[in-house]
Write a structure and sequence with these properties.
299 residues; alpha+beta; Alpha-Beta Plaits; Pseudouridine synthase; ten-stranded mixed beta sheet; 7 helices; 18 strands; 19% helix
Amino acid sequence: MCVREMKRPPSALWLVHKPIGATSASLVDELRRELAGDRPLKVSHGGVLDPFAEGLVILLVGAANKLFERLHEVPKVYRAEVVWGVETDTCDAGGQRVSMTGAAHVAPTPAALEAALGPFLGWTEQVPPNTSNKWVDGERAYVRAHRGEQFTLPAQQVYCHAARWLTHDLPRASTLEVSVRGGFYVRSLARDLGRALGCGAHLAQLARTTVGPWSVPRPGEPVQLTGADVLPWLPSLELTDDEWGRVRRGAALPTRAPHPPTWPMPLGFPGAPWLRALRNGRLVAVQGDAAPVLLPGGV
C-alpha cells in the first residue's frame, strides 16, 4: 500500500483501491501494520467489498471508526457485469448453478431490460445472498453457507437511487451502473433481474467506482482524508475554544446557522440531518438528533 513514508495524523479516512482477490479485511490488516507496526491501532473498513470485486474501499483509522454509519448513508456507485441465463447459489460467478434456462432461447431485449429496472428503484425489499456478511444466530451468513447449511435470510429495506445500462452483449451479458445506499447487494439485484425477466442471471464482475464525492484511487496510491475533507456532504460549524470546551463537557453543538455542505447529496437521495464540528482544521464531533459524538484528538 506504500504509506510508510507519508506524514499522517493518528486518525483519518483512507481511500484504497482493492484488487480482485483481496478481501476488505486484508486491506485493514495491511494498513494497520504500515501505520502502527507493533502498536495497537483501531482500523476498520467503511463497507465490505466482496473478494471477486474491485474498486474503492474506505478504511477508518482511530477516532474515524466512529463515523462508520455516516459513510453508510451516502451514494455508492457500482459498475456490474450481469450474465444472463444462469442463476447461482451465491448470485455470482463463483457459485453453483441453481437454474439454467438457456439465454439463447429467452434472451432479454434491450427494451425489456430497460423496463425491468423500474421496480428496483427507490426503497424496496431485498433478500441478501446467503454468502453475505450478515449475522445469523451469532455467525456470519457466509460461514454457514460455506458449510453447506440451508437457510434463507430475511428481506431488508434497501435503496437504489439510479440505475442504467451501459452496454449490452446479448444474449450473453449486459453492463449495469447503479447508485445505491449502503446495505444494497448488487449480487441480489442481478439475481432478481434474472427472475423478473424469466431467464436467470448472476453477477460476473463488480467494481465500486465512487462513494459520495470520492473516486477509487490508483492502485498502490491510497489517499488520506482529514478535517474538512471528511463527510463533506454534512453542514459544518467552526467551533471557538469556548464552544469546544462546552461541547467536551456534554453540551450540544451551537445552534447558529452552519456552513453548507461542500459536496451536496444528489437531489432526492435520503440522508440524515447530521451536523459536523471543526476546530483548528480537524473534525472533532458530529451530531444528529442525540448528543454529539466526540472524536478524540479529531480526524
